[in-house]
## 1
Amino acid sequence: MHRTTKASNISTASDTSWNSLVRHQLLLLAVCASVLFLNLGSARLWDRDEPRNAGCAYEMLERQDWVVPMFNAELRTHKPVLLYWCMMTAYAVFGVNEFAARFWSAVAATATVLVTYHLGRRLFSPRAGLWSGLALSTCLMFGVAGRAATPDALLIFCTTLGLATYAWLAFPPSETLQASRPSHLSRASEGSRPVASPDYYPATHVATASVFAVFGVAVLAKGPVGIVLPVAVIVAFRYLARLPQTPTTSATVGYQTAMRALAHWLQPRHGLRTLATMRWPTALMATLAVAAPWYVWVGLRTDGAWLRGFFLEHNLGRALTPMEGHDGPAILFYLVALLVGTFPWSVLAVPTSVFVASQLRRTNQQAAGVLFAVCWVGVYIGAFSLAQTKLPSYITPTYPAVGLLLGLMIDRWLDGELIVSPHWWRAVSVTLLLAGFGITAGLVFAGIRYLPGEASLGLLGLVPLAGGAMTWVFLTKQQPQRVAVSLAVTATVFATGLFAYGTTRIDQHQQSDVLLSCIPPTTSPSQLAAYGCLEPSWVFYARRPIRELTRRQADEAVSFLTREDSHYLITSSHDFEKIGGHLPRDVGIVARVPYFLRKSELLLLGPLREPAIANGAADTDRR
């Protein structure tokens, strides 16, 4: 009877665990479907990265070339090939359109959410994993990456999968961790002998190869950053987690105590031992087996030109000098970027930081998992703070780690293990309310100033306003579960509204494709040029290369238009002033549309015998 009851209890627990696993994943998939896929293809591609990537994949597909990236008939050395391969497969299924260009980014982001959920289950608990996935899927910048035709979502997925594979293979079971603690996390004195700690590394060569093979895919997604920084996370974590404990000899904080603490944390021999136990030959062989074939192939096909452009200019150059005006103040830049990018969950930044600091002083698996996530965030922010070129998207691979810390904090708060001062929760509600007011005012102003007729975008600010009000009400009623749920609902509704509605409304003011539709389909690439400006989206929507003429080539622009009667040229109304007076009477403005977010118009110049129509009326002026 006893054995039957015990077996029944085990079976019931297993069923419950399986049911929660299914429910959690279905909920996360529903949120991702709303945030990442709703109206995914409704907005046109946003200049400049999206059309460059989408256009490159289109040109490769047209040439049936799966090796050499080309855009506007020129070698494109900005990014490796994985994104283009993904887009080419999507084009083959869905056609060449915006949805297809963004499809695999949304899929990769959804997969990242599920991987983060399972990593949270492994390191902490199923509910912590659920909240981690919810927080990640509704972060502002994560949604941007998941809905953009850029390699960011693929890099985030590969990085997360690689580090999750490492954690799954390297972290001992819970009971082992509790018996052999990460000794540096303890304050208690345990004598002069170091306390043994787990090795925190995959036990076999096969396991090691599986981790680094995933990093090899990340290298195909975005280059060296796909392996250098994840490996740095593993090294930093292992170094800290395996430090032998030094007993505390004095409670007084002084110069000698500080020097002893510094000497404890900085141990070159310990660092060398950490590096020496990582099976580098196996790791490098696994990475090269995945990534090297394409890099070698593209190098041979382009006589090394692609390799020089990618590694020297777009990797080394970005690290040493600010490129394209993307610079900022060291660490402060990425701290601000992280707060903005994780909105609205960043309203929990202070209580989460306090909770994380307290967890690092503990000695269980939870503390080891927290340390792992902290190293994950710290390595990326530290590395990119040193680089001279700075972009908010550079640190998006840290968002799964931020989601893990947020999820754990919420889980422990709901369990009653974490006591947060009511003042902090009131501050959370007030922050949401202020953010709502700010978003409303900012979007209304933008709608009036830059997007005529779109002041209704300010309604999106009502979502965090309502969220702040709900959290305040539930806090006064001491209902923590409803506070957390209200935050999740606020984040989901705000992200969905911003991406599915807001971007669609803003996109109505992009009309360059209307201008391009006025070009006769028989026009060859040699008969189409742009003077003074060239947006990548024009190349994508024209479905052909466009010759670029700089402002110093005004004479050549006039010559191009008058050379043959089938030539067309795109320019702005500002640049037209330099060449308009030199055109013959039968060449002029065929069509015009507003230049998106600029105080000028885009003009299509060409023969006036059969004027095209844009904005509902033909324009044959020669202003």
## 2
Amino acid sequence: MATTVKRAYTGFRGVDFANDASLVNLTRSPDALNVWKNYSDTQGSCIETRPGYVKIGDFTNNINGIYFYNDDAFIHAGTNLYIWSNFPNTPEEKTLLKNDMNDTRSSFVIFDEKLYIIDGKNYLVYYNNTLKKVSEDNPIIPTTTISRSPSGGGELYQDVNVIQPLRKNTFLADGTSTDFYLDAQNIEQVTEVKVNDTVTTDYTTDTTNGIVKFTTAPSKPDLDGIDNVEITFKKTVDGYNDRINKCTKIVVFDRRLFFTGNPDYPNAIFHSEINEPSYISDLSYYQDGSDESEIKAIVVGNNILWVFKEPNQQNETIFYHTSSLDETGKVYPSYQGNVSTGCYSDAINYKDDIVFLSRNGLEGISSDDINSKQLLNHRSSLVDNKLINENNFDNAMMAEWEGYLLILVNHKIYLADMRQMFSGTVGYEYEWYLWDLSEDKISYIKEYKGNLYIGSQNGLIFYFHGTNDNGKVINSYWTTPMDNFGYGNLNKTTNKRGGLAKIKTIPNGIVKVSEITNKKQEAREITQYSATGFDFGNIDFSNFSFETNNNSYIVYKIKEKKFVEISLKFYSDELDKPFGLYSAILEAFIGGYVKK
């Protein structure tokens, strides 16, 4: 009597593009697309077709940013910035706010109920239905010198504000002097003069030497030692305003805004004063490593500002900043991390796991003590063969949605699942899934209030909902590894009554099943499987059938003789017909030894 073997495929975890299909763990797939685990519906036990997406907006040009503020959507498309006031209704009620934005990916934060936007060309703020340059929104005018005598001296007080060119000096008048020397020369103009809190025009200005000449000498102050002359003047320093305008990344940390991404200062981090986004001191910046390599990303996590730089010769690639106090107040000194792997594109705080994309894939930083040696844990071994070889990998972007870490690159989304982890060579790694959104050239991704929004290169905006991709079929499938049932040197014959799959009941759902063997690959010239999966091709499955019963099971009948290994494919390739799979069983009889 022939020996019978049963194989149960269950407890599905994710894809494995790293190994030969015959070496993949039975809980993973060597070739799966457009599937995931919907934890909100299946508690993570079912593989199913991903949600589709629906078009909700058309903005003509490449989507560079999608922001949300007071339930309105701000859309940066090409060089235009729009507000979409009836979001997400269609047709969209959109108003053009600005038509000279930088045509590149922008960044935003909300701080003290105001929206701040930066794009490498503009530093903008929006509130009370008005968009302004921050430099035009009553920015802080610093008082750079106080207790100054008419002839000079005094006490340095506040730093110059790079956002705007105005400054103040305050003086102690002596009752006889008419010439008051400012703390800068070659100024552009004096904009206001006050004596004893009263505005006066009783003066002339020597802009070259920075002198205000009063017709009548201001009187001494009524209270001894209290400044009674205030002069506001304009002095523009070339490049100051562009320090921030040319930045492309902005985050909130410790009640300040931090900026980076300025190509003129590739290793610099700038920051505002506490609670004052419109005041950025000309001394409030830090240089992380050498300027031969640029900063690619900044991330806030665990009360630390992490800075990720591209690879460089000095291996100075990761820095971090924490707040401390010195004689001037709060400072954020730069510390070099003990990691030499550089950042290739983006970084994110994924559920308190600080991760970044290197040229080798996704890396995570772990350390019990920030002052000790940080360990670099690789997180993406299972998908690296595909991920790092995608076009435009250096322009990848990341987001978090439904508990997944999403990496958008080359119109595809790689999904990392922290809820399914396994021990890697060093530390733990994630399980992964892969979605393909190439048909609509998706180039931007944004999560908001539990919804996932995506933008395309031709200006379309979608959100994930439904069972098709804006009217197109979602081609979704899950394949099992090439399985020899533990008998690699013996032939097998399927028991045509031994196939059973438990499926998820989905309205209008469908599941199709196909199979492939080593024998059929040769006979039908099927593409050989490899570390990146295999192609089933246009196989004739006329010898294969399945039927359903009322218990959410399908019974499939496979007729295959004298094969060494076999793989099953569960899939849907029809419009609005998703599939869901809990488990599958296959039974076979063990035969004689394989003969050449």
## 3
Amino acid sequence: MDQTRIRNFCIIAHIDHGKSTLADRLLETTGTVSKREMAEQLLDSMDLEREKGITIKAAAARMTYRAADGQEYEYNLIDTPGHVDFTYEVSRSLAACEGALLVVDASQGIEAQTLANVYLAMNQDLKLIPVVNKIDLPHAEPERVAAELERVIGFDQSEVIFASAKEGTGIPEILEAIAKRIPPPSGSARQPLRALIFDSKYDAYKGVVAHVRVFSGTLEGRQTLHLMQTGTTFEPLEYGTFQPQMRPLPVLACGEVGYVATGLKDVADCRVGDTITLEADPAAEPLPGYRQAKPMVFAGIYPTDSDQYQELREALSKLSLNDASLVYEPESSVALGFGFRCGFLGLLHLEIVGERLEREYNLSLLTTAPSVEYQVKLTNAETILIDNPADLPDPSKIAEIQEPWAKIDVITPSRYIGQVMELVTTRRGQFLRMEFLEPESELAPGEARVMLEYDIPMAEILVDFYDNLKGSTSGYASLDYHLSGYRPASLVKVDVLVNGVPVDALSLISHTSNAAREGRVLVSKLRELIPRQMFDVPIQAAVGGRIVARETIRAMRKNVLAKCYGGDITRKRKLLEKQAEGKKRMKRVGNVEIPQEAFMAVLRLRED
């Protein structure tokens, strides 16, 4: 295909704005997939993606389109994840394109994550085609949303395409706009080879399959290839494209999107953002923007049955073949036994990995409360990184603790501004700015949407912040966040003692202003969740050796007098004394079993 007739584009949209459905219609209208092969959310191949209605892994598809001018075009669609956890993968996918379809729901308008991805696309200098989707909905307001796109992002209203991906309305106009508005790829086949890896997956027969966009040069033959960031070399097994299934080709020309079967056995050797070049004739410098994916959220994963430890190790090993951003290392806990400390890109990533481990590998798992990574400066001037509260050193050795902060954008109708401000302020958030996305004078009071920007500690938005935000705004608010840096904080470790024994998996790092309250809430929840024993069980929360809260689980009492129908009182007294002596002995050697729900109580500290 002539390079001037190649169009590389992706689709930017908030969750549930119809991105996957639009991709389905484009594949169907161009005849890439026959009606017999067609399925809803075709590019979302994972069961979890279909159930949750989100895109987790990027997918690519090549389409052939005959435009109104009679010319035949090659369209390369890269379907990207929309969630904030996968921002880096989205930025690399955008770097592989020259344009993007910006899809906005006709009833909901611009959301926080849409805006975040628009800024990413603008940084990459992409040509954006605005599409107002779902115009078939009874409560759709396409004209209002088009005006919002004009005001917030700067489009001309004549550029906006009104569509319904479900009904097929507007699809021909979108296909024509891609040919007319998105520029062809630049670069020359005569320059040294440079191909960007925007995704990778593991195949049992072909090793790591790298999804690539060729920026210069040509991929052909069995010449030895070199990865410029990791320094790995390999001889390719196969080249090809996605239609949307993998289809082998002899050559990937300059400007095209496709795959390279590398034969490598570890996805970590073939990272997103790396540049492929020829070992014999390497490029002078790699393509810009590469960085290693850094975990932001950490949690312990333990098998509920200790016999499944080896199976969990193998499952994590296999899962990490397809997910280079998953980091794990063995750890042991006094309370939970042997397990793994895992690092994730965010909470959604944690949830997806946990569900995949349980479903695909038939494991029963316990996940501890997630935490962030703290920088701890010791009195001997050494700095260590802590992602597990149990690893926090003795307070006498700590000079300073720094915690990660995030910048958050919340978009909400103006009538909920008070609730949002109250929620963020109670989480130690710092107000930055407020901007109205639409004039209040044109809408009913309280309906104008406003964007609030805050700085907030990452630990405060980890667990239930998003749920509380949705609850306090009747589901209308949307959230986007990114890490902004580390700041010193007054933090302490809250230890939990069950029957006098510290339970490391229940400890947490808390701000000094919240430590005593969180300790009280946690022990009261544990009192409800831990079953009664034959002896009294004290549950205590301690901060630096000082007990700040205590609850007692009362003993179950067996009626030892049931067999006494009368007789001398001394007989009854003797039985009661014998029972009391036995209870003292049990308390001394008794082992309290703690159920799974107790470990998740840490997640629900702010519900009360």
## 4
Amino acid sequence: MANTQVLIIGGGPVGLAMAVELCYQGIDCILLEQTDGEVADPKVSTVGLRSMEYCRRWGISQQIRDAGWPVDHTLDVAWVTSVGGHEIYRVPNPSYRDRTLPDYTPEMEQVCPQNWFAPVFQNFLGEYPEGVIRFLSRLDSFEQTNEGITAQITNLENNTTETIQAQYMIASDGARSAVRKACGVEAQTFHQTQTFQSVVFKAPELGTQMGKNHAMVYFLVNPIIQEPLRAVDGDSLYRLILKPQEDGTVRDAIEAIRAAISIDTPFEIVSNIPWRLTHRVAEHFRKGNIFFVGDCAHTLSPSGGFGMNTGIGDAVDLGWKLAATIKGWGGDSLLDTYETERRPIAVRNLEEANANLQRTQKRAIPEAITSDSPQGEAIRREMATGMERSGVKREFDAPGVHFGFRYESSAIIPDGTTPNDDPFEWKQSSYPGCRAPHAWLSPGQSTLDLFGRGFVLMCFDSTPKTEKFEQTCQEKGVPLTIQQVNNPEIAQLYERKYVLVRPDGHVAWRDDALPKDVDILIDCIRGEKLLHKTSLLATS
């Protein structure tokens, strides 16, 4: 029998991120993956801004950037009647070579399909003791008792069985999660399920033929196809999304590609796979000592690229809380805050993604849109005006969705007026529950680089008296670092003289003075159940 602190089921992007976060926190874990780990279908993935900050935390952001996407490849998004046909509207985006960092993050998003993403994480985990990842390993059954989880495993390579005993189990086994279903947890459906098909093909000359008119994403706007065609690897590989025929049968891939691309270019079909788009969020993210992350907990439209990134956020939120609990300083209710904090974010991101999807699907497509006539030109011009007015750029430039969420739970102490929740009016804030603001402390060092394995008390007071604060944390086993910052611009950004930041980089508490009863504050932010928190309002 093997023993581990945490057993992870499923080695997709979120399962891998979960294992990386636990290893980063010093927690022993085993990840079971039923396949050999090779990603056959190169799903298009953009590692979002916040996820890249997490990769920075783990020390692998550069590996993601170097995974293979050409730094000089266009990142433009174009709405066209066909590739090589009439262009209706374009959102220009500088290539990674020409792009500059925004002022609110030390990272930028990165195109990284999953066949590149997985090896980066697998190699990272390979630096830990052998056995963190077990490929070709299937979960056959499990039992949850007061002592933890007992799981029965089959090694598919040699057909041997094994028992693994774990304190906790994390299900990252996808939208059809057998673990979640076995736990009796349903997933609420928010919008109608739709069926699509994904055609992956190679067109090695297309980029050269398109030249300066090439784009990373083409949204096809014609009577036959109204779905996206996207560059996968920035070289020769592309993915075309289609709606199947009205009777549900899969459309002919060759005919679809010829309808999507109007110039003569050689191509080769790689795959043609149907898939179902569901909009679901699990009713609960926890059942005892079993937790649900990623697609197991929520599925949402790929429109906007929020899906995988929402799951990576789950992994970081849950990871530090499991570490705190296993190490003994996390309170009795800390793990309950995983669902309290993350489920509302899943619903929020689901609705944002669906809004992007609906914006495309509700667009009327007149037959004449593809014609060279004055009527066709007028239709395209009117549609471009409507696209500008409706804000289609939001789908591809949504920092407020990636950063603007705010946690609310018993482990966070709110104060004053909450920030604006509109993700398109987002700005950095130190309000409790928000991701702590980024600022450069020195060349190459962000304030975000201070946060990770313990709490950090950011001090902007010229004469801080933190002895009692440090002593209380030490007595309760809570890891704490005091960070004195003497930069007035950063002090203004952080808004208060004292800002307490959690291991995940979110603010737990802030004030212009330290509280009289530090015990209550520390018990609250570490998830210890409290009868009341009124004395936190009294400061020294």
